[in-house]
Amino acid sequence: SNFGVISLFDLRFLMCAKRWQHPCQTDLHAMTPFDDVIPSDTSGNCRVLISAGGHETAVWNVFEGKCEQIFRNLDENATSYASGPVACEKAKATLRSPTLRDLQMDNASGIRVVLPLPNGGFLTAGSDKFMRFWHPHRYEYSYCMCGPSRKDLSSYYYSKKIYNGISVVEEEARNPDVASGKQKGSNACHEDCILDLALIDSQDRIILSCSRDGIVKGWK
């Protein structure tokens, strides 16, 4: 919902089996099933990817209402994080109703779409016009797929940290003097917020992206 409430429905009995509130208590911009299974896990696939709290995407166990892993990227033009990940905070069992101020807040910035891929990774995109690939188990394989032409994509790298016992993959920015400068953002990148992604399951594995200005692009 627009204030972070997640509901798990049992369609056999047409009833809500569980409900909790995301720690961000604001818009959940994207949610999709996630088929990746954590090694040594025996609980089966009961996970979703949820984008909320600005530039964070997290793996949530829907049966337990618990965050298991977080992926977050830097805010536009930022070189560091002001605080720890929002999803690391405990989910709210007691739901808070939104205030008028909550409903009037502009939550347009951040990740707007999440697309799981057959290889176990996933793509994210949003207001900063970047498309990023994230690898759940090999964080060093995560990378910026494309971005605004003024950005030096080689200046970004990914590290793993632990917050409150939760694994967090964070995007980091090198000093501009250290970056190679060889991998610049593409002029073919979107010029407005990216709102949706789709995988065309063909031999070429084409990714489609669309932005708020109505532009649709295909990527190989």
TrEMBL record:
Entry superkingdom: Eukaryota
Residues of the signal peptide: none
Molecular function as annotated in GO: protein serine/threonine kinase activity
A cellular-component GO term for this protein: late endosome
Protein name: Uncharacterized protein
One Pfam family per UniProt: WD40
GO aspect biological process, one term: macroautophagy
InterPro entries linked: Quinoprotein_ADH-like_sf, Vps15-like, WD40/YVTN_repeat-like_dom_sf, WD40_rpt
